Amino acid sequence: MTRTVYFDNNATTPVSPEVAEAMLPYLTEFYGNPSSIHRFGAQVGEAIAAARQQVAALIGAADPVEVIFTGSGTEGDNAAIRGMLEARPDRRHIVTTQVEHPAVLGLCQHLERKGYRVTWLGVDESGALDLAELRAALTDDTALVSVMWANNETGVIFPVEQIGEIVRSRGIPFHVDAVQAAGKIPVRVQELPIDLLTISAHKFYAPKGVGALYVRRGITFPPFLIGGHQERNRRAGTENVAAIVGMGKAAEVALQRLAEDARHAGQLRDLLESLLLESCPGSRVNGQGQNRVPNTSNISFRYLEGESILVLLDQAGICASTGSACTAGSSEPSHVLRAMQAPADWLQGAVRFSLGRFNTEDEVRYVNQMVPSIVQRLQGLSALGKLGQQECSQPEQRRTSTVGARG
Ligand code: PLP
Predict the structure, then answer these.
(1) How many CB atoms lie within 10 A of CB 267?
(2) Distance of CA 10 from the midpoint of ligand 1 (Å)
(3) Is 200 in the pocket of ligand 1 (CB under 6 A)?
């Protein structure tokens, strides 16, 4: 039996034992509807209120009423963008980036087809935004700016505080997709010029299908699901109580363990990168040199196909990904690496390893044991790979094999 090594924590995380335990009574004992007048329902309503406080604490919101529970990160992103457009119907311009998750990217493409004007901010080779480009993009017609905090494929962190200051100085609402930031780096939304912020529970050890949208007090935000009075009339529908309770517990644990989790994942990620760059000539880290979330590593293997590497990794019991789980299955190269102007010979061979709380150094060493032979095997199968083998056996070549390395 091969072992399983799960290095795909940006796709989703396992539900942690304490979260499962917190949820269980809300699947069995406390099944009341939180909107019911009777005590049995009210008790459940209290559990939701407690979860709202826990989530507000994780993101540093001033007031739990600023937190709306949603059914996913995708829903939060869609609701934020559509909400801002509805709130200012006279404005027809959106500013976002070329490297967003499909939850923002796909919606903005859709809105573009519907007649909105979208400015797609580019990034440089290391994945950084040009703030002068952002400044120049803002007009009196701009309805909102939506920028992710941390990139799901590379882990590159955008300077949301600086971006928010520029956006706020023009009186434009600013939405941040913080799905890959929450639980990995400190998020203190109240102290930042951010108006709306999306998170998703399954990225920090809670179940899938629950998330939250932060809406700063004072921001006009129309309801996005209309029906009952749940979520202060903003998102109607009977609450997914057990999942919300689980998200609250996970938020509490993530906040308590923030520094410890970041240190743990960061040490493993750095070890993995240094081992793989050494053992696999013709590999490089995408986004290296940029500020990145500590758990994410995006490594390109020159001349190879990421999908083929994944298949062989899977046979060795190693779970990784080529990029966003939402674009997996398409043979299109990553839109993120394309925006970073990755040269053609590096573009297809990207593999994302994303580590988490439950990974170990032993697993990193196992991955480093398996990857070089997989890479060599694939290089042997590809004419270009053979070329890469020859080229990359020269140490000079190896030294220049990182993108965006500074200094
Ligand atoms: N935004 C980012 C940056 C993500 O990484 C993801 C999921 O991978 C989402 C949004 C969508 O979240 P969900 O899977 O909860 O819909």
Answers:
(1) 14
(2) 9
(3) yes
User: Which atom of ligand 1 lies closest to the CA of 326?
Assistant: 8
Cβ–ligand 1 distance for 175 under 6 Å, the answer no
Q: Please state the pTM of the whole predicted model.
A: 0.93
**Residues with a known catalytic role:** 326
Using most ligand atoms within 8 A of CB, pick from 8, 149, 179 the residue to mutate for ligand 1.
Answer: 179
In eight-state DSSP terms, residue 203 is G
pLDDT tens, per residue, the chain with 407 residues: 579 999 999 999 999 999 999 999 999 999 999 999 999 999 999 999 999 999 999 999 999 999 999 999 999 999 999 999 999 999 999 999 999 999 999 999 999 999 999 999 999 999 999 999 999 999 999 999 999 999 999 999 999 999 999 999 999 999 999 999 999 999 999 999 999 999 999 999 999 999 999 999 999 999 999 999 999 999 999 999 999 999 999 999 999 999 999 999 999 999 999 999 999 999 999 999 999 999 999 999 999 999 999 999 999 999 999 864 444 455 689 999 999 999 999 999 999 999 999 999 999 999 999 999 999 999 888 766 555 554 433 333 333 333 332 23
Q: CA–CA separation, 219 vs 229, rounded Å? A: 19
Residue 244 alpha carbon to ligand 1 centre in Å: 17
Pair of tokens at residue 367: 């991955």
Measured from the CB, is residue 97 less than 6 Å from ligand 1? no
Q: Considering just the CA atoms, what is the radius of gyration of the chain in Å?
A: 22
Q: Whose alpha carbon is nearest atom 14 of ligand 1?
A: 73
Regarding the beta carbon of 177 and ligand 1, being less than 6 Å apart is answered: yes
Compute the distance between CA of residue 55 and CA of residue 64 in angstroms, rounded to an integer: 8
The Cα-based distances of 31 to 35, 351, 391 in angstroms read: 12, 43, 63
Residues facing residue 321 across a β-bridge = 352
